[in-house]
C-alpha cells in the first residue's frame, strides 16, 4: 500500500517541484535517510529507488545520489546482518540446518560467493536481507559480506539514478512530459 501511495505521489508531483520543495542540500540528506531506512528491513516497505529516480530526474547529480544511496542502504543492511548474527542463539536447529545447507557453497567457493554477493547488490532490486541475515546466521565475516554488497549497492543506485536522469531528459527533449 505504501509503495502504491508513494508511486502515485511521484506520478502527480513533478521531480522539479519535489526538489523545489525539499531543497537541493536537504534532498541528498533525505535520500540518505530514506535509503538507510530502506536497508534496515524488508518489512518497512520504503521504496527508496522511487525517490532516487525522482531526485535524479529533478536535476540532482546522479553520481552523488548513487553514492549516498548505496552507502546508506549498506549501513541499514548492517543492522540486518547484526540481527542475523545475534539470531544464532535463538534459531531453531531446523532453521540452522536449512541455513547451513543454503550457504554451503560459501565455504567451498569463497571467491564465487564474493562475486555473487556483489552481483546481487548490483542488479537486484530485492531487499538485501536475503543475503545479510543468512550470512549473519552463518557467522560469515561482516566485511566479506558488506564490502561486495556495498559496492554492488552503489552500482545499482547509481545506475537507477543515471537511467532516471537521462530518461527524463530524453522524454523532455521529445516533448513526452
Tell me what you see in this structure.
- The structure is a single chain.
- This protein has about 180 residues and is mainly α.
- The protein has helices spanning about 1-10, 15-20, 25-40, 50-55, 60-85, 95-100, 105-110, 110-125, 130-140, 140-175.
- Helix 2 packs across helix 4 and helix 3 packs antiparallel against helix 4.
- It is elongated.
- The two termini are about 25 Å apart.
- The mean pLDDT is about 80.
Describe this protein with a few key phrases.
177 residues, single chain, mainly alpha
Can you give me a brief rundown of this structure?
The protein is mainly α. 80% of the residues lie in helices and 0% in strands. The chain contains ten helices and no strands.
How much of the sequence lies in strands comes to: under 5%
- What's the number of extended β-strand segments? 0
Major sheet summary line? none
Could you tell me the radius of gyration in angstroms? 18 Å
| Shape label | elongated
How far apart lie the N and C ends?
26 Å
The ordered H/E elements are HHHHHHHHHH
Please state the average pLDDT score.
82
Quaternary organisation? single chain
Give the helix proportion (percent range): over 70%
Structural class: mainly alpha
Unreliable runs, pLDDT <50, ≥5 residues? Answer: none
* H/I helix tally: 10
Amino acid at each position: 500500500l505504501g509503495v502504491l501511495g508513494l508511486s502515485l505521489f511521484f506520478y502527480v508531483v513533478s521531480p522539479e517541484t519535489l526538489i523545489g520543495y525539499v531543497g537541493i542540500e536537504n534532498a541528498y540528506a533525505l535520500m540518505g535517510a530514506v535509503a538507510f531506512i530502506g536497508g534496515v528491513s524488508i518489512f518497512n516497505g520504503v521504496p527508496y529507488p522511487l525517490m532516487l529516480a525522482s531526485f535524479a530526474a529533478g536535476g540532482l547529480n546522479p553520481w552523488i545520489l548513487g553514492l549516498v544511496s548505496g552507502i546508506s542502504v549498506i549501513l541499514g543492511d548492517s543492522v540486518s546482518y547484526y540481527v542475523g548474527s545475534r539470531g544464532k542463539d535463538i534459531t531453531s536447529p531446523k532453521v540452522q540446518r536449512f541455513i547451513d545447507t543454503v550457504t554451503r557453497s560459501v565455504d567451498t567457493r569463497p571467491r564465487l560467493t564474493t562475486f555473487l554477493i556483489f552481483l546481487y547488490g548490483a542488479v537486484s532490486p530485492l531487499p538485501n536481507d536475503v543475503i545479510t541475515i543468512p550470512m549473519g546466521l552463518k557467522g560469515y565475516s561482516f566485511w566479506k559480506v558488506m564490502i561486495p554488497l556495498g559496492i554492488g549497492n552503489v552500482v545499482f543506485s547509481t545506475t537507477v539514478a543515471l537511467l532516471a536522469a537521462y530518461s527524463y531528459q530524453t522524454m523532455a527533449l521529445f516533448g513526452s512530459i
